[in-house]
Amino acid sequence: MTTFIIFGMLIGISVCNATIMYAREGEMMLLEFVYPCNSTRITLQYGNRAPCYSSAEPKHMSMPPNQRLAFENDSQVCSVQWTIDPVLRDDAGTYILTAYKNGIMLPDYPRIGLRVEYPPGRATCQLSDYHHDAEWLSLRCTAPRGTLPGHILCYQNGLRLPTYTHLQQTDRTITQTILARSANMNVFCCSTLLQESKDKCECKDFGWDPSNKTTLTEISPCPIPATVQTSEPMSSVSPTQDIQIDYFTMPTKIPDISKCQCNTDHVTLRNSISTVISLAITLIIIIIIHIMLSARHILKTGKIEKRLENFGDFNKTDTLQRLRTLLVESE
Questions:
Q1: Average pLDDT taken over every residue of the chain
Q2: Which of 49, 181, 190, 238 could, after both became Cys, cross-link 203 (CB 3.0–4.6 A)?
Q3: How many CB atoms lie within 10 A of CB 191?
Q4: Distance between CA 82 and CA 53 in Å, rounded?
């Protein structure tokens, strides 16, 4: 909501000792009245109605629910702030502060004239005979006129439709004829300000079904996407039922299958590497044992040959006997 703080005695157009102020419907307005601090009594009133506030009886205020008062008094300047939030059309009029001193009304009491501006009202349309053929039809749309300049626009299938006539205005209404396709696509129309056009989702004053030539009871130019209940059988939906499905409901958390597979492969690879390392260590141990045994055998053979050279020339029987003895000793 746009907020306007307006000081009634300083800003505006003064006409006959009155300040004219402008506010848009729905906004906040602050009117400030300055009066002599030596006043013995002040009253506030709207138009020619009875005063809604009197300092003589401050507890007996008769203010509308969207209005409130605030006072500021010092030795030099005294004022009252009249806040209207939000501004309504019925708030337009003249606001008057009257100051008294010893029962005598002081002259030149401040007055503020409030003018409320508002856009055109809701648009309504009906089928027109201005232009009608196999492809196009025309809708004559009317809206209550506002104080701010406006016009009427329509959308069909998300696209803005062309106008058939220029905007026509009277003291109370604005009228415009819009061309629409006669296809099975709903038409949505609305009134808007000339400088603040509404988009397709905001344009929902009036809805029209061209295929049946009827007014829509539910106006939803941008419906919320429907969800599908996967547990329900497909046969529960009628084949002739018009259902718009844009999205499917999905679980809030979906397991990452590829991530799980990567973890499994990692564990398998790690186990394979461990197996290969174990086999390699075992093989190395076997080779070392084989080398040690071979070396021992070679050492034994060398000792035997050396002993034989020391024996000299003996017969075969003695040689064999000595060989057995050496083998026993080497063991």
A1: 79
A2: 190
A3: 26
A4: 11
